[in-house]
Each structure stands twice: as structure tokens, then as C-alpha cells.
Design a protein that fits this description.
Pfam families: AAA_SelU, Rhodanese. The chain is of the alpha/beta class and about 350 residues long. It is about 50% helix and about 10% strand. It has two domains: about 120 residues, Oxidized Rhodanese, domain 1 (3-Layer(aba) Sandwich), CATH 3.40.250; about 220 residues, Rossmann fold, CATH 3.40.50.
């Protein structure tokens, strides 16, 4: 079987990548682009593991072999029934052991040029952690700082449209970063899968060009940023994004439109702020939700929550904050891309 093993650097040499782990393992994290064709279901994996511990490895292997053979047969009759003769799949499981080895062997017996990933998912996870620990040090970060509602994410998107290189951490995390940052009906990725998505994005960046990124705390919702990336951000050039109070209120009203479409969910999120604010204040905000007073709620959140919280956070870890380039930003205007071009020109002049 050794001749069927390939290393991680051959990942892109195949027509398809197949993850044969259980659905729960796949959902926790997987190689980007891999499809899930489990050779053991969640329940079967538990069953085999329990038998291994409570009876014997032999009994567990015999049961596992029968289940794996049955599941591979089902995949052959359904999911892979239309694959051509010259098909070249790469197959992996947790450690590159029996689960992926069984499917690789059977596929080659059929005539496909299947290969098994040496070390399995575990080798990919190690490479991901290595990338997160080393790649950020080479980045030249330009960090957008400013209070909530100033439109930093919109400016980041406009910079991307203007041709700048950007790293949208909140998009990768499926979370806006603030206490009301959760997206209704959208689950955040697991920490492992966020790491995978972030590492893939870091590998795609050109370290010779600046990388624009929003200022973030250590956590975005439930996921954590790697220390090396936080350090690169803290050492970066800062841009102070400043919008008027009314522009911010109007922006938040638009940005939270999806939240207002789910009033009970929004009120539940506001309830979580109890302890930071009195019961009376929270109830007043919840009443604004019921009354559809979106702009009033946005103003209240700016004045009583976001700005005081921003004032309390010194951002002292951002070394370039005192020399930050001011960026007056109108997030609701149609010319945001032109404003982004203006920022790029101002930064170019500053570095000359």
C-alpha cells in the first residue's frame, strides 16, 4: 500500500478529494473542497470504538470491515457511479489508516487511480497550525480602527473593489464581531474550520503588498484569532475611520436590517446585554424593536453601548494608533469605492 500514499504537497494533483470520516468529523473541519463519503456513520464509528474498548480489537476490526465494505459498496452504486475510468481521487481519513486505506485499495482494484493522503487529516491540521503560526509575520497590515457603525467592513469591501488586498476576518468567522454580531440562522464555523479557512486565505495573500484588515479583539464571536496574526495586526499601520453620528446610525440601521427581520431573535440578543445595562434600558430597547423604531435603537446603541465601550478599550496594543491616518468616511454614500481610492492615494503619499 505504500506506493498508493501521497504527501500533502500533492493535494492539487487530483480530480477530487474524498473525506471518508464520519459526518460529525467532516462537519468539525475538512480539507477545503473535499466531499464527504463516510465509510462509517457517526453511530457506526461509536459502535466499533465501543466494541474495541469493551470486547477486543479483533471483534471491532471484523465488525468495522463489514460496515466499511457495505458503505463503500453503497457509495459505488450511488455517489461514484458516474466517475470515468481515468478518474484520480485523493482519499483521506483521520490518520491515513484503515478507513481511507480500504476505499483506496478497492478503488484501485476497480481501475481508478486512487491515492491515499499520507498522515490523513491529521497531517493537514498540522500544516494549518504551522501556517497560522508563521505566515502572519510576513504581512504588512493596514488596520482599520474606529467605533462600531463607522462602516469599517463597508470600507474594507470598497478597498477590495478598488484593487487593494484585504483580509475579511468577520466574513471568515460568520460574525460581525460585536455583541450583536451573530448572524440569524447562520452558525459560526468550528474553531478548527475557521483555522482552515483563515490559513487558506493567508496562503493566498501576496506578502509583498499591504493587507487591509479590520481591528479585532482576540475573539470574533466564538472563534479565536491566532496570536501571530494578532501580533502582525498590532504592529501594522493604522487608519482611523471616522463617520458622523447620523451616518453611523443610518449605517447600523441598514447593517442590522436582517436582525430587525427577526425581532424575537434580536430581542433575545439584547437580553444578553443584561449586566452591561440595566433591565430598564434593555426593556426600552426591546420595546423599540417591537415598535419598529430602528433609527432610534441605532442611536441608543451608539450613545449608550458602543461608544462607551470603545472609549473604555484603549487599543493600546495597536502600536500605530497615535500616528493613525484619519479617514473621514461616509459609509452610506454611493461613492464608497472612490473614497477607498482616496485612502489608497493618501497612504501612498504618507509612505513616500
Amino acid at each position: 500500500m505504500k506506493h498508493l500514499l501521497v504527501s500533502l504537497d500533492k493535494l492539487h494533483d487530483f480530480d477530487e478529494i474524498i473525506d471518508v470520516r464520519s459526518p460529525l468529523e467532516y462537519a468539525d473541519d475538512h480539507i477545503p473542497g473535499a466531499i464527504n463519503a463516510p465509510v462509517l456513520s457517526n453511530e457506526e464509528r461509536v459502535q466499533v470504538g465501543t466494541l474495541y474498548r469493551q470486547a477486543s480489537p479483533f471483534e471491532a476490526s471484523r465488525l468495522g470491515a463489514a460496515l466499511v465494505a457495505r458503505n463503500i459498496a453503497q457509495h459505488l452504486e450511488t455517489r461514484f457511479a458516474d466517475r470515468p475510468q481515468g478518474w484520480r481521487p485523493l482519499i483521506y481519513c483521520w490518520r491515513g489508516g484503515k478507513r481511507s486505506g480500504s476505499m483506496t485499495l478497492m478503488f484501485n482494484m476497480i481501475g481508478w487511480r486512487a491515492r491515499q493522503l499520507d498522515g490523513g487529516y491529521k497531517s493537514y491540521r498540522s500544516a494549518t497550525l504551522q501556517a497560522l503560526a508563521t505566515l502572519p509575520a510576513a504581512l504588512h497590515c493596514v488596520v482599520l480602527v474606529g467605533p462600531t457603525g463607522s462602516g469599517k467592513t463597508r470600507l474594507l469591501n470598497a478597498l477590495a473593489q478598488a484593487g487593494a488586498q484585504t483580509l475579511d476576518l468577520e466574513q471568515l468567522a460568520s460574525h460581525r464581531g460585536s455583541l450583536l454580531g451573530a448572524l440569524p440562522g447562520v452558525a459560526q464555523p468550528s474553531q478548527k474550520h475557521f483555522d482552515t479557512l483563515l490559513a487558506a486565505r493567508l496562503r493566498a495573500l501576496d506578502a509583498s503588498q499591504p493587507v487591509f484588515v479590520e481591528a479585532e479583539s482576540r475573539k470574533i464571536g466564538a472563534v479565536e484569532l491566532p496570536p501571530a496574526l494578532l501580533q502582525a495586526m498590532h504592529e501594522g499601520v493604522c487608519v482611523n475611520v471616522a463617520s458622523t453620528r447620523e451616518d453611523r446610525a443610518a449605517f447600523l440601521q441598514q447593517d442590522y436590517a436582517q436582525l430587525f427581520e427577526n425581532p424575537e431573535w434580536l430581542k433575545a440578543q439584547l437580553q444578553r446585554m443584561l449586566g452591561l445595562h440595566s433591565r430598564e434600558v434593555i426593556q426600552g430597547w426591546q420595546q423599540m424593536v417591537d415598535d419598529g423604531r430602528r433609527i432610534d435603537l441605532a442611536r441608543e446603541l451608539i450613545d449608550r453601548h458602543y461608544d462607551p465601550a470603545y472609549a473604555r478599550s484603549s487599543h493600546s496594543q495597536y502600536q500605530g494608533l497615535l500616528q493613525a491616518l484619519p479617514m473621514p468616511f461616509r459609509p452610506n454614500d454611493a461613492d464608497v469605492v472612490e473614497q477607498a481610492h482616496g485612502l489608497l492615494s493618501a497612504l501612498e503619499c504618507k509612505t513616500r
